Amino acid sequence: MPVKFTVSPKKDPRNLTAAPKYYATIKSDGRADTIAIAKGINSISTVSNADTLAVLEAFLAVVPEKLADGKIVELGDFGTFRISVSSDGSQTADEVTARSITDTRVIFTPGKRFKQMLETIEFQKEGGPVRPSPAA
Question: Is this structure's pTM higher than 0.70?
Fold first, then answer.
């Protein structure tokens, strides 16, 4: 099933008097929570829904712990998660402390399976025909 997108006008923040340009914006088709993921796994395996849900809940507890320990979490062809920070700049290295850190985030880098999906995904303009991904 193709991923739907809409078209949104956006102004250039550096030149507010310029005419807006139009960009594709993905239109989500709802959400898939942990229970939906567990049911999906259950439908293609012999593992019970309750066991799958328990493993997913454990996974969701362990991954943040590993990230908080400074680890990069590698999940094979799925991809990797790592912590990234932003900080204030200082004149010398000695002036940089933990207090210099202004923001933290988790970065996901897709692995082989995600990259394959991104190369073969199809898009459909809402109300328009299906178009293959430009990478295809």
Answer: yes
DSSP-derived 3-state class of residue 58: helix
Structural domain for 53, as ranges:
32-62
Instruction: Tell me how many domains the chain contains.
Output: 1
Is residue 50 assigned to a domain? yes
How far is it, in rounded angstroms, from Cα 132 to Cα 2? 9
Q: Is residue 80 part of a domain?
A: no
76 φ/ψ sector (left φ>0, alpha ψ -120 to 50, else beta): left
Tokens coding 121: 């995904």
- Structure confidence by residue, pLDDT tens digits, 45-104: 999 999 999 999 999 999 999 999 999 999 999 999 999 999 999 999 999 999 999 999
How far apart are the C-alpha atoms of 45 and 20, rounded to whole Å? 49
How far apart are alpha carbons 85 and 98 in whole angstroms? 11
